[in-house]
Write a structure and sequence with these properties.
Length: about 450
């Protein structure tokens, strides 16, 4: 792998400049106003794959945004690694909170990254991360050190639930056939403590509506007698947790996979500084389910959160009014064994029972996703551990991520392949938030490490 590492070293600046080109295109999949930009990003990704040396590069149409495919088959008797990533990004809003423009990437020094971090929407989630895979491939390929076959599948709808992939993956089983999938779209513990995600949470997402009077009413004339949907909705939402921070939906915890005492003891070894954590997000105290640590609450335990809530008058000044309707978007993060459809049904059956008879309640299910677990004796895990342990000079630990990548469970179901979540982000990258950033250290460490994963997986 020496030539590969030398190639990487000699091309560091070019790799960064190329990533900047990708980051400059605002590929926001959630907002139709960026439709053309998302499509242009797919073309740009295809161009980079070709330049890196991939064959049969294709921008594959789906019922939504295209999937970019490319491959290098060096020897059919060798293993095939499928690289998955996403070129779409989250909306940049609230834009006024960005210290530099979200789609004009720049490198700035920070406390965590004295050598610099790339500030841009998508720098860590996921353009900067999947691009490490593209550049690691380029380095292995151009030096003749690619040890096995490689396929790329970079999609454009991850941030909106990957719904077209439920058709695309089953329809392209042969094309996507692989021995293992590798994904760089998760985080490590810190710059000096490497880790590999062995779990992802699932998701159930619903929108709820509470309807009262047939129009907004004067709150003096009618207030006190006519139901106030905003008051009612708040009270209903408040009932979804008990005093111990547990979710009250009957049957919600029935299928939850509990960890053994040994597994929890293992998890407790992960370095964590509560004061630093509180400071980093600007809160006076933490909260959550009784009996669990912060790391457990954000990874192995299911949660329920209101993501947005609206209704009535929210303009300038005060308007005295009782809204006709109130709305909320609610997400439930799920853990292994919980079925998203079952949980959505439990919610849909239970939530309306919390309402008084004076209002009408509607529950609308959105996308969902299954959780994921990778056993730590999996060949892919062991190769990733060996690679990371080598380049960081410290043993890589297994962690469970709190986020969701629904396609991972779909891959397992449709292709029968496991995914190794070899991401290099940090929680401080603040993905989805203003000032998202990705450390230069992380970007280059990823490019350096990935070729060793390919080598150890092929040898192992
Ligand atoms: N890369 C994230 C998921 C992630 C973040 C995993 C941090 C592990 C650690 C991904 O792009 C994402 O944001 N996923 C969504 C999924 C949803 C849109 C179905 C999520 O987790 O909210
Ligand atoms: Mn992502
Ligand atoms: Mn994301």
């Amino acid at each position: 792998m020496n030539e590969t590492q030398k190639f990487i070293n000699d091309n560091k600046d070019r790799f960064l400049n190329e990533l900047f080109e990708l980051l400059r295109i605002p590929s926001v999949s959630a907002d139709p106003a960026f439709n053309q930009d998302v499509l242009n990003t797919a073309d740009k990704v295809a161009e980079f794959l070709k330049e890196a040396g991939a064959d049969n590069v294709e921008v594959c149409e789906t019922s939504g945004y295209p999937v970019v495919y490319g491959e290098k088959i060096i020897d059919p008797s060798k293993p095939t690694i499928l690289v998955y990533g996403h070129y779409d990004v989250q909306p940049a809003d609230p834009i006024e909170l960005w210290e530099s423009a979200p789609f004009e990437p720049i490198v700035k020094k920070t406390e965590i990254h004295p050598e610099g971090a790339i500030f841009a929407r998508g720098s860590a989630d996921d353009k900067g991360q999947f691009f490490m895979q593209v550049k690691a491939f380029e380095a292995m390929n151009k030096t003749g050190e690619l040890p096995c076959n490689i396929k790329f599948m970079i999609e454009g709808e991850e941030e909106v639930g990957s719904s077209s992939l439920s058709e695309f993956v089953p329809a392209n089983k042969e094309k996507l056939k692989n021995d293992i999938i590798v994904i760089s779209d998760t985080e490590i513990i810190s710059k000096d403590q490497p880790s590999i995600s062995v779990g992802l949470r699932g998701l159930s997402y619903v929108e709820v509506e509470v309807h009262g009077a047939n129009m907004d009413m004067h709150s003096g004339v009618y207030g006190g007698a006519v139901p106030n949907p905003l008051n009612v909705l708040s009270a209903m939402i408040a009932k979804l947790h008990d005093e111990d921070g547990r979710i009250t939906i009957p049957g919600f915890y029935d299928d939850v996979l509990e960890l053994s005492a040994e597994e929890r003891a293992e998890m407790a070894k992960i370095p964590f500084d509560l004061e630093e954590y509180k400071k980093s997000v600007g809160i006076a105290d933490i909260q959550g389910e009784k009996g669990y640590t912060t790391i457990e609450r954000t990874s192995i335990r299911p949660t329920l959160d209101v993501n947005g809530m609206w209704g009535g008058y929210i303009g300038a000044g005060a308007k005295t009014v009782i809204a006709a309707s109130a709305f909320a978007k609610i997400s439930m993060r799920l853990v292994p064994n919980q079925d998203p459809d079952k949980i959505t049904k439990l919610f849909t059956d239970y939530f309306p029972t919390l309402a008084p008879s004076s209002v009408r309640v509607v529950v609308k299910p959105h996308h969902g996703g299954h959780s994921y677990l990778l056993p730590t004796d999996d060949k892919g895990y062991l190769a990733a551990k060996k690679a990371m342990t080598q380049t960081f000079g410290k043993e890589a630990l297994p962690t469970r991520s709190g986020g969701s990548i629904p396609i991972v469970a779909l891959f397992e179901k449709e292709l029968g392949s496991k995914s190794v979540l070899m991401g290099f982000g940090l929680n401080s990258d603040v993905i989805h938030s203003p000032n998202e950033n990705y450390g230069l250290f992380n970007f280059y460490k990823g490019i350096e490490t990935i070729p060793y994963f390919f080598k150890y997986y092929t040898e192992g």
